[in-house]
Amino acid sequence: MATVTMIEHIASHVGQEVELRGWVYAKTGKGKLHFIRLRDGTGQVQCVAFRDDLPEDQFELAKALTQESSVVVTGVVKADERAQGFPAGFEIAVTSVKLIQQAIDYPITPKEHGTEFLMDNRHLWIRSNRQWAILRIRATIIKAMRDFMDDNHIMLMDTPIITPSAGEDTTSLFEIDYFGEPAYMAQTGQLYNEANMAAFGRVYCFGPTFRAEKSKTRRHLIEFWMLEPELAFCSLEELMDLEERLQCYIVERVLAKNRQELAIIERDVTALERVVGPFPRISYDEAVDKLEQLHAEATDPEQKELLKIVRGDDFGSPHETALTQLYDRPLFVYHYPTAVKAFYMQPVEGQPDRCRSVDLLAPEGYGEICGGSERIHDEALLLQRIQDHKLPVENYKWYLELRRFGSVPHAGFGQGLERTVAWICGLPHVRETIPYARLLNRSYP
Length: 445
Ligand code: 4AD
Ligand code: MG
Known about the structure:
By secondary structure, the protein is α+β, with helices and mostly antiparallel strands. The protein folds into two domains: 3-101, CATH 2.40.50.140; 122-432, Bira Bifunctional Protein, Domain 2 (BirA Bifunctional Protein, domain 2, 2-Layer Sandwich). The chain has helices at 56-63, 115-120, 122-125, 129-151, 190-200, 236-257, 259-264, 269-273, 284-297, 301-307, 317-324, 379-388, 397-401, 417-425; strands spanning 3-4, 17-30, 33-39, 44-50, 70-79, 90-101, 155-156, 162-163, 175-178, 181-185, 202-210, 223-232, 281-283, 331-334, 347-348, 351-355, 357-362, 367-374, 410-416. The strands form four sheets. Strands 7-11-12-19-18-17-14-13 form an eight-stranded mixed β-sheet, with helices on both faces. The chain has a five-stranded mixed beta barrel with strand order 2-3-4-6-5. The protein has a three-stranded antiparallel β-sheet with strand order 8-10-9, with no helix packed on it. Helix 4 (129-151) crosses helix 6 (236-257). 4-amino-1,4-dioxobutan-2-aminium adenosine-5'-monophosphate is lined by residues 167-168, 188, 190, 211, 213, 220-221, 224, 226, 228, 368-372, 412-414, 416, 418-419.
């Protein structure tokens, strides 16, 4: 009796007969020999069907297999250094083939397809090697993030997705009808995290968040996942320490677990191997100094225009890209202008036009992957800021109350999962970093 196994465990079955269940990635061959490239979701292996080794009808069936037909294949595992596959180095000498369903005219063929076509067929595209590799790396990153939180005694607290008020910029609010009342899809779990922080000390949430981003960019999704830790008695410097350790942990984990996937997507792993602490930390004003210098030195007029910056303005992606290219590892930029950041950020002592915020910019031009800050813990100041931002005070009653009952200095950050995946995988656009991207012009499939 053949042992049922999965391709990722094939190395421990050399010389044995196994049963594999999966789909035909590709099929080639002629005459007496046919090669079925079988994938089962965990890996891919070449199955060699030799006419003399299997019943006539089954050999005919193997010959007629089409791309993405579902099959059960039985055969003996052979180690062979030259065999390609995931993992490499193995092939199957087929002893039987059973067809589950014959696929007809699978639309994604080995020829080149345009991105829009592939996005329309996303429900099938995720079967392709590149997409398979990226989404497996995504799963590793999620697990690493959660393990890091657990190992650092930061407790999981889920926060609501339907919320009565804004957590960030109100222009990106996604409004829904909550039984006749307006409500919003969560832009962040942070405000609830702050309540949870006072109950459990160190908490995190990790869920889908929503922003009605009205522009098409390579960094913005309408629905994205965010990891958000929130810590009591935490300073901005301690927050940066935590963020830095988390990035190193994530990258180390991917390098340990996903070499094969990184090879499939042809990622330059030396760039990832450089991600070790300490990360450079510069203030917003120091960053502007650097940008002014780059602007002055720029010879290409187009580049010069892009690098223009007015001190006090927020950075655009060309600024972030230029800054990250000055370093070989992630870069912290702290103390942004209060005016360009969210209402809840603690001002810098003695310099209220700057706030205790920090963005983490990923290297190789990727830019912001984390945004965080110390939070205002004084009730009067927070109330003032809510009013200044013209937010409806009555909806923030509970949030303000947190500053009345044992208020403590606290800080937290949010890390965008998809931007992290894009950076680690070296992808130019976030659309391939999530199974089903929601974009300005796309909510299908
Ligand atoms: O900088 P942001 O807006 O910060 C917050 O939401 C805070 N409340 C987080 C906190 O302190 N708990 O967003 C944080 C991160 C960004 O750095 C980015 O990686 C990601 O979330 N992000 C997006 N990712 C994809 N598409 C979008 N539209 C995104 N908007 C933010
Ligand atoms: Mg931000």
